[in-house]
Amino acid sequence: MTDIRPPLLEMKNISKHFGATKALDGVDFACRAGEVHAVLGENGAGKSTLMKLIAGVLQPTHGQLRVDGQDVALNTPQDALRHGLVCMFQELSLVPDLTVRENLLLGAPGAGLGWLRGTGLSDAQDVLNRIGGDQIKMGARVADLTLPQRQQVEIAKAIMKKPRLLILDEATSALSASVVDRVFELVREARDGGTAVLFISHRFHEVEALADRVSVFRNGQRVETFLKGAHDYGEIIDMMVGQKIEELFPQKPAGLSNAEVVLDVRSFSWEDRVKDVSLSVRRGQIVGLGGLDGQGQGAFLMGLFGLLRKADGTTAIAGQTSDITSPKVAKHQDIALAYVPEDRKTEGLILDQSIQENLELAALGRTDLDAGDAALYSGSLDQLALKHGGLDLPVSSLSGGNQQKVVLAKWLALKPRCLLLADPTRGIDVKTKTQIYAILRQLADQGTAILLLSTDYEELIQLCDETHVFFDGAIVASLKGAELTPQNIIAATLNVATNEAARHA
User: Fold this and answer.
1) Best label site of 128, 129, 152, 478, fewest CB within 10 Å?
2) Is 261-336+416-502 a CATH 3.40.50.300 domain?
3) Residue 259, Cα to own-chain centre: how many angstroms?
4) What is the mean pLDDT of residues 33-41?
5) Within 13 Å and on the Cβ side, how many CA atoms surround 328?
6) Does the keyword field hold 4Fe-4S (predicted)?
7) What's the rounded Cα separation, in Å, for the pair 399 and 423?
């Protein structure tokens, strides 16, 4: 029987202009109760602007919004909340210096103190427990949490408001596969209870797992809306960016097995989080690090860059054993390591400073370089095709993808021997990902050794020459060639043996 009820939310002929820029141009869009509606598109396609209009953060230049068939004006986030419209934005809204409890209280519906005295706090704790956040203490300061833990708190903060329409904007970008599965269980329960869910993700396997309906946006317009399964991955990519799926990843080279070893690590250990890890990366290689979040691969990268105290093991750079005790030592021209951290906003950039000032950060302390020389960065900026309105503008004015390009550019200017990357495409649109993939392969072809931690198994398969999968602090599988498949990667992340030939003895 056809549902004749009006959509929970409907947008008619919506446009949003920022000066001469048309972020949205004559968009019609609707979502229904009891449905997960995925919204896809590259950065700049209009997705975030659409969500901010629904959340009351922005107001349309033209057009009308309706809730339950009635015209509404969403002039503030409070207006949206009164209609049950709740958004979890990609850029986390938590206050770092407050505790988890205090942040939840700030986000509490209605009278916050009444919520706190009732079951609200225990409900929020229950949500955290269900999505793997049972180790997160209510009294913990948010600044002391990991990025995945902060994202879990943000999800709990949104769910506890009991929304009629829940917007998840890259809500799982920092989470491990097992935690994502738990979040999806919660979202499906909300959907089955009548909640409408708008889901933004650049991970196609997540859209495949969760969405009922899909809308694709491009250049501020809705290209098409269809039921999941109506178009394959390649067709959707083509809608989004005009690019075929086979063009996403560059061709892998052959014959790297005899190249010079740039980075050789033996028996690397740290506390009980990294256990006896040994691997090597040759000139021209991109070597992947996979596994569920918190299995030691992130700590391993940090340790290689001298960010961990009392790490054991030996590290050799181009055949010379090196005692890397700090980032200053790691980036010295005789070693020439570079490290791009997981969270660009809190670990890779100083958001209030200019683009130019952020570019200079990596070169500071290198006596052979003039950090203030703009010419030092021109090559890497050109290579990355950074889009900006002037290097004197704050780096916070850039899109997420261009911010990540700044993080990369400041290190590429130092011409590193080995590049250590922690999930560098997290939360970035497909087109920018493709640019970064091409640049990484180009760097590798020029002789750079690259060690890439990724939570996207497609990157580990399509981009990497070989991949090491971590479980409980140790490498449990090393995969390359025909062994580098989704099934083997997923099995290894769960420490389930499916390919004995690929596993360590």
Assistant:
1) 129
2) yes
3) 32
4) 94
5) 4
6) no
7) 17
Q: Is the pLDDT of residue 67 over 90?
A: yes
In this predicted model, which residue has the larger pLDDT, 90 or 215?
215
Is the separation of the CB atoms in 397 and 389 below 8 Å? yes
**Under 8 Å between Cβ of 280 and 380:** no
- Predicted pLDDT of residue 239: 84
How far, CA to CA in Å, does 459 sit from each of 288, 414, 474, 488?
A: 8, 25, 21, 14
Helical (H) or strand (E) element with 268: strand 261-270
**3-state secondary structure at position 484:** coil
Domain boundaries of the chain, sorted by first residue: 9-243, 261-336+416-502, 349-415
| 267, two tokens | 């028996």
User: Once rounded to an integer, what is the mean pLDDT over residues 144-149?
Assistant: 89
What CATH number labels 9-243?
A: 3.40.50.300
Kindly state the tokens that stand for 123: 């409900």
Give the lowest-confidence range in 209-223, 249-263, 465-479.
249-263
Q: Please list, in sequence order, all residues whose beta carbon lies within 8 angstroms of the beta carbon of residue 108, skipping any fewer than 6 positions away.
A: 115, 116, 120, 160, 161
Distance of CA 451 to the CA centre of its chain: 18
Cα angle 242-170-463, degrees, rounded to a multiple of 5: 55
Beta strand spans in 271-364 (E): 274-282, 286-290, 312-317, 320-322, 337-340
User: What are the beta bridge partners of residue 422?
Assistant: 453
* pLDDT tens-digit series, residues 147-173: 889 999 999 888 888 899 999 988 887
Q: How big is the chain, counted in residues?
A: 505
Angle at 435 between CA 399 and CA 171, to 5 degrees: 50
Given a contact cutoff of 8 angstroms between Cβ atoms, the answer to whether 289 and 454 are in contact is yes
CA distance linking residue 463 with residue 461, whole number of Å:
6
**R_g of the chain computed on alpha carbons:** 23
Q: Is 116 helix (H, G, I), strand (E, B) or coil?
A: helix
- The helix/strand/coil state of 319 is coil
Same fold yes or no, 9-243 and 261-336+416-502: yes
pLDDT digits 0-9 by tens, 435-456: 899 999 999 999 999 999 998 8
> Contact, 293 vs 247, CB < 8 A?
no
Sign of CA dihedral 325, 331, 333, 335: positive
Q: Are 94 and 174 in contact (CB under 8 A)?
A: no
- For residue 120, give both structure tokens: 């609200």
Q: How far apart are CA 256 and CA 413, in angstroms?
A: 25
* Cα 255 from Cα 444, distance rounded (Å): 13
pTM of model > 0.90: no
Whole-number pLDDT of residue 6: 81
E strand residue ranges, 331-486: 337-340, 418-422, 449-453, 466-471, 474-480
Extract the tokens encoding 447: 């002789």
